[in-house]
Specification:
Length: about 170
């Protein structure tokens, strides 16, 4: 995923997590952190022997936060595949919108014949959804790799909910 922090966009990946020990990669640089939630929205982070307190305050969106440290405050936004899809759909960017498979109506996920990392060709079935007593196969709109699967088999879904992201 990407995180927009102020004007900076950073690619962030969780590499490992064991208890309070977290290993992340931010823009190709690895960080080993000792992180503990001390109260709701407040975290204590140890990095290279230094202690940092970070407060995350959720704003009007579940993916936007005000981030406060002792010396600085930032606006942060999580830019995941769902957010990219919604931004693309709202801006009319059809190519980006084709990367995310959605169902136009509520239903139930019957089968997901692909997994993360699967290579798909345009026209391959990537998910099957049951809605209104009918099963619909949703196919890849382009060749690519399955980067995210937002649902599981048997999940109940909403209309226009992102289901699978292909890059």
């Amino acid at each position: 995923m990407e995180i927009k922090l102020g004007e900076r966009m950073a690619k962030v990946e969780l590499l490992a997590e064991e208890g309070n020990q977290i290993k992340i990669m931010v823009d190709s640089k690895e960080y080993n952190l000792d992180m503990l939630q001390v109260e709701n929205g407040v975290y204590s982070v140890l990095y290279k022997g230094r202690s940092y307190n970070v407060e995350l305050i959720e704003t009007d969106s579940s993916k936007k936060y005000s981030v406060n440290t002792f010396y600085h405050s930032y606006d942060a936004e999580i830019i995941d595949a769902e957010t990219k899809y919604l931004q693309a759909r709202n801006s009319g960017n059809l190519e980006a919108a084709e990367s995310t498979i959605t169902s136009p109506m509520p239903g139930k996920v019957v089968k997901i014949p692909v997994e993360l990392g699967s290579e798909v060709k345009k026209g391959d079935t990537v998910i099957i959804v049951s809605a209104m007593k009918m099963e619909s196969e949703y196919k890849a709109m382009k060749d690519g790799i399955v980067k995210e699967i937002f649902v599981h088999e048997e999940d109940i879904i909403d209309g226009n909910q992102p289901l699978v992201f292909i890059d």
